[in-house]
Task: inverse folding
């Protein structure tokens, strides 16, 4: 995770320390990644949580679809949060919606450790963490139409034009989300970068598999239940406007796709 208090529009987030160079290979086989691994600041408590709690609240990355009913011991609506950062929003949502099961995907070890501590302290049984590239999780671990919501809150904006290919919102991302979302399910993105909000709309609006719940070309009001995140608060401190985008997955017969 890129530290929200250090990131600025000129920082090159691709720079990694030499001892971190091997790490992304274990998180993904993809050559273009939407993340950069920074391992530097794992606290003792986070390290301990990773060791002690990941076996209980984590799911190892596997190449075949999981059975959510077997994982959670019930059949419920399943929401996926991609890039949950420190997990505060994920933990708050899971505590507020005990009727929903949540999977959180994050590659940043300190964030995963922090989230695990929150899950344990709140006594949550409706959250599982996958410490792996969300693109591969969507492609391999989640069956078609298995999700009712995909949440993408304040993804790395990758400011420089030559890095735009690393923005997670791309045609390929929408393909994997469209496959994993059930009809009527919702892709919910939020960003505090106006340029990225425009980029998201440019990708989503022409995609006939999705319908903008706010109306064509419009941003949605922030849903009252959406807890503010660390990166959102940092954006607000910088005077950025926050944009929410909610797009519903349409049935295939209405979109002409399979
Ligand atoms: C800018 S931070 C936002 C974190 C959090 N959502 C928030 O609003 O505070 C983006 C996060 O997405 C994670 N990330 C980026 N690409 C990812 C991917 N493909 N799979 C899993 N996590 C990813 C990064 O590690 C980082 O923690």
Result:
């Amino acid at each position: 995770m890129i530290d929200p208090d250090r990131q600025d529009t000129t920082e090159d987030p691709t720079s990694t320390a030499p001892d971190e160079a091997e790490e992304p290979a274990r998180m993904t086989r993809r050559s273009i990644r939407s993340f950069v691994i920074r391992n530097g600041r794992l606290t003792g408590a986070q390290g301990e949580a990773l060791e002690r709690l990941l076996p209980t609240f984590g799911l190892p990355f596997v190449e075949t679809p999981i059975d959510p009913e077997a994982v959670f011991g019930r059949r419920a609506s399943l929401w996926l949060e991609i890039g949950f950062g420190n997990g505060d929003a994920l933990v708050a949502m899971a505590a507020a919606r005990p009727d929903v099961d949540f999977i959180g995907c994050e590659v940043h070890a300190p964030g995963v450790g922090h989230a695990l501590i929150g899950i344990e302290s709140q006594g949550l049984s409706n959250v599982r963490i996958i410490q792996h590239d969300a693109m591969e999780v969507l492609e391999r671990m989640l069956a078609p139409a298995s999700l009712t919501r995909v949440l993408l809150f304040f993804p790395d904006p990758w400011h420089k034009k030559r890095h735009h290919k690393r923005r997670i919102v791309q045609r390929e991302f929408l393909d994997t989300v469209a496959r994993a979302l059930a009809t009527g399910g919702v892709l919910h993105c939020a960003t505090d970068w106006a340029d990225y909000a425009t980029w998201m709309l440019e990708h989503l609006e022409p995609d006939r598999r999705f319908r903008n719940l706010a109306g064509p070309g419009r941003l949605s009001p922030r849903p009252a239940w959406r807890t503010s995140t660390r990166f959102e608060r940092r954006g607000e401190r910088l005077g950025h406007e926050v944009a929410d985008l909610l797009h519903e997955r349409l049935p295939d017969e209405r979109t002409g796709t399979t």
User: Anything to note?
Assistant: The CA atoms of residues 105 and 134 lie 6 Å apart. Residues 44-57 form the longest helix (14 residues). The chain has one domain: 18-255. Confidence is low (pLDDT under 50) at residues 5-22.
